[in-house]
Amino acid sequence: MRVSTPLADRFGRIATDLRVSLTDRCNLRCHYCMPAEGLEWLPREEVLTDDEVVRLVRIAVEELGVTEVRFTGGEPLLRKGLVDIVRRTKALSPSPEVSLTTNGLGLAHVADALADAGLDRVNVSLDTVRRDTFAEITRRDRLDDVIHGLDAAQQAGLTPVKVNAVLMRGVNDEQAPELLGWCLERGYQLRIIEQMPLDAQGEWRRDDMVTADEILASLASAYSLEVSPTPRGSAPAQEYVVDGGPATVGVIASVTRPFCGDCDRVRLTADGQIRNCLFAREESDLRAPLRSGADDVEIAERWVKAMWVKRAGHGIDDESFLQPTRPMSAIGG
C-alpha cells in the first residue's frame, strides 16, 4: 500500500520532517518552559506504547514520504524504550535520517547505545556554560552532566553535535559570544533560538524576547559573520559563516523572521495527536483509531487530511494570536 498523496497542504508545502515527542516529562525546570513545581504529566495509559510509536513512524516513512525523524520530549532520554525505538525506526525502508533533541543529562550513559542503534546525530539544549546561570535557568545544578553528554555524543560519532540555546533578557543575553567560543573550541554547531510563546505559564511577551537582530549584534561584537552561501532550504536556522569559516553559527528567528512558507515539519505528540504546526491550537487524533483497530490506510488518510488544513503561517504578529494550549514540553521540538 502507498498513499498517492504525500503530506501536503493547500499552500504547496510538503511535510517530510517528522518530530516525535516520546514523553512530556522532563528532569529540568527551565524558566521559559515550565514552572518550578513542574506540570501535571500525561497519564501513562494515554502515552503511545513503543509499538504504537514505531507503527505510526513506519506509516509516515514508508507510506507518506517522511525522510527525517527527530525524537523529542519533554526529555526523550527518560523514555525507557528509546534505544529500541531508534533501532526499529532506522531499520525502516527507506531508512530515514534519525536524530534526537535532548537536554543531555543522561546522554553520557546511552550515547554509544544510541549510535549502535543507528541514531545519526543529536541536538543538545544548553543556554549557558556558566554554572550559576545554568542553575538559575534550569533550577538544577547539572551543567557537568550536560557537558559530559555532549562529549560522549561526539565521541560516539553522533555528529554534527548541535547545541540549541535560548537567550533570556537579563539572564544570559550577553553570553552569546562566550557560548559560541565554547562551541567552536569543541567542534559543536551552535544554534541560538528566539524565545517562543510556548511556556506553560503563558508569561511570554514579545517585548521581553531577545530578537535575532540583538543576537547577531551580540555575536558580531566578537566575531565577523557572513550569511552562509549554502542554500537554507527548509532549515529553520539561518546560518552565518564565522570569521571566514569553515565554522558556522545558526539563528532560528521563528518570531521576528518567520519561515513558515518553507516549513516541512509535522509533529506527533506523546499521546498520539498530530500537530501540523508548532503553534497550532487544533490537533488530529491518531491514537483512538490506532487503538480501535484502524488499518494503515485509514490512519494514513487521517494524517493526510490533518496536514491539508495547515495554515499559511503561525500568526504570532496577528492581534488574534493565542498561545497553544499545550506548552513546548508537551508538544516536542
Mind explaining what this structure looks like?
With 333 residues, this protein is α/β, with parallel strands linked by helices. The protein has a single domain, classed as Aldolase class I (TIM Barrel, Alpha-Beta Barrel). A twelve-stranded mixed sheet has the order 7-8-9-6-5-4-3-2-1-10-11-12. Helix 1 runs parallel beside helix 2, helix 2 runs parallel beside helix 3 and helix 3 runs parallel beside helix 5. The chain is globular, with a radius of gyration of 19 Å. The model has no long low-confidence stretch (mean pLDDT 91).
Name the CATH superfamily assignment.
Aldolase class I
Biggest sheet descriptor: 12 strands, mixed
Q: Supply the number of helical segments.
A: 10
Q: What class would the helix/strand composition place it in?
A: alpha/beta
CATH architecture: Alpha-Beta Barrel
The tally of strands reads: 12
The largest sheet has its strands arranged as 7-8-9-6-5-4-3-2-1-10-11-12
Helix content: 25-40%
Uncertain stretches = none
Cα radius of gyration in angstroms: 19 Å
CATH topology value: TIM Barrel
Portion of residues in beta strands equals 15-25%
How far is the first residue's CA from the last residue's CA? Answer: 30 Å
Question: Order of helices and strands, N to C?
Answer: EHEHEHEHHEHEHEEEEEEHHH
CATH level-1 class? Alpha Beta
Number of structurally distinct domains = 1
In round numbers, the mean pLDDT is 91
What sort of overall outline do the alpha carbons produce when their principal axes are compared?
globular
Primary descriptors:
globular; alpha/beta; 29% helix; 333 residues; twelve-stranded mixed beta sheet; TIM Barrel
